[in-house]
Amino acid sequence: MPFPATRLRRLRRTPALRGLVRETRLDPADLIYPMFVEAGLSARTPIGSMPGVDRLSISEAVKEAGEAHALGIPAVLLFGIPADKDPEGTGAYDDEGIVQLATRAIKEAHPDLLVIGDVCLCEYTDHGHCGLLTSTGEVDNDSSVELHAKTSVSLARAGADIIAPSDMMDGRVGAIRAALDEEGFSDVPVMAYSAKFASAFYGPFRDAADSTPAFGDRRAYQMDPANGDEAVREAILDVEEGADIVMVKPALPYLDVIWRIKERTGLPVAAYNVSGEYAMVKAAAAAGHLDERATVLEALTSIRRAGADIVITYHAKDAARWIQQ
Fold first, then answer.
1. Within a 10 A sphere around the Cβ of 142, how many other Cβ atoms?
2. What is the pLDDT of residues 137-173, one digit of tens each?
3. What is the CATH number of the domain that holds 148?
4. Would residue 13 count as lying in a domain?
5. How far is Cα 278 from Cα 300, in angstroms, rounded to an integer?
6. Domain membership flag for residue 5
7. Range of the domain at 234
8. Hey, which residues are catalytic here?
9. Tell me: the pLDDT tens digits for 6-62?
């Protein structure tokens, strides 16, 4: 047999051959575009730590959502910055809250676009934690879950197509599913932030959402980055409680977790390509150290290859344009 008998390069020779045998494909339909909506804003305000991302007024959010939809992106994920914050995070479950108002406006303008409501109290509490505090400053799990369920119903009432709890309280998926069903929203799916790690990559998001904890950190409820088995257990528990989609956050440092959760649950898996991942690429590209387009498409493809069916990314609009080119 002549050497070498196997030549894998044969199928790499031309773009057409490479495309024919490509194993993992990236499409705008795989993406979700996250947006920040701020109460009282008349236009948009740039976020310094996230070049190209702005805090939006409701009218600007409607426009931004329409641009994403026109690019083939099927869904937006909304985060709210309220006019006022308080210890109970009341703006999260106010039927006239910023995300509720933005949801109604976006659905009216773009009825075929999916609107996903993030469910957490950190953007709405004056202490920046994801739930209610006890007298000793601990986050109380069960009373917080009640408010997350209340928030979920309020968002569904406003027209949210998917509810996405990101708080990492124990039992919140089951409580949200029960509350939605009881209020007549049994058809509204839950996309659970199942494996949300206590990550260093969230810094720019906290700047964007003004949600940095006033004291301490979130390690008592978000996951230890060292734990993979626990991430799988968290996902399985969310499936048992009624989650329709499970999520891993962040994405790139946890590709192994994405793969394991996909293999174990068989459910659609979302991965959040978070603010720090976005900001690092932007900074390196601005410094001329790498090609932004090639880097983003490679990173998003790797997330899909690891098993993610859905990728949430601030690069969604740019990625959609690049894919279509």
1. 13
2. 999 999 999 999 999 999 999 999 999 999 999 999 9
3. 3.20.20.70
4. no
5. 11
6. no
7. 25-324
8. 196, 249
9. 889 999 999 999 999 999 999 999 999 999 999 999 999 999 999 999 999 999 999
